[in-house]
């Protein structure tokens, strides 16, 4: 494990493996650098890249200096990019893809960008979270009601059936890991605020994202997620869409398929 200091003094923990061009992995909600799927992905990618797999602030062994702001998370990613030599490839998953996209728009030196199923909702017919979703998640965490926050985030935010949460509660290792990072759910909710209302993506929001960008979607993923990926490609100046079975992330990451597509894109 290594540490890098972000602009506000927060210590960010990361693992580094492999040799080659720098590639930073940005996890989504509930993710952390020891998440099994991410560890496997990092291992496969390290055959061609120097992989930086980090704990977003508040997770794992990273610090969590308050107050939280999206800008601070962007600075965390920039600190990793600086540590990697000043530029890097970046892959972001789900809300981590939104963070990576925001960082790219803010001027982070990202050579190529891969955005894996950012959970936007762009169609009015698709299921949407409650309008006060961010507020509710924040209040549950402020009251230290972590179990309720996890259930609310998964069912109202991610659309998971209630029985899935019930099953997870019966899996001690899984549930304890979810509980350990539950206090960061407001951070993910903040990243998605304004992009899940069933409206088209705002025009020109990411016009500054000029690096080559790959948007990944699984053909097995919910239709709403696929529509979001397709809409994002239209909104980004230099982007391409990759649709393939095994790229969906709502059940289990297929690290082999993902690593193959990323290697093709980043090394192409």
Automatic annotation (TrEMBL):
Molecular function GO terms recorded: hydrolase activity
Keywords: Hydrolase
UniProt superkingdom: Bacteria
A Pfam family that the UniProt record links to this protein: Abhydrolase_6
Domain AB hydrolase-1: 24-249
PANTHER family: HYDROLASE ALPHA/BETA FOLD FAMILY, PEROXISOMAL MEMBRANE PROTEIN LPX1
Protein's recorded name: Alpha/beta fold hydrolase
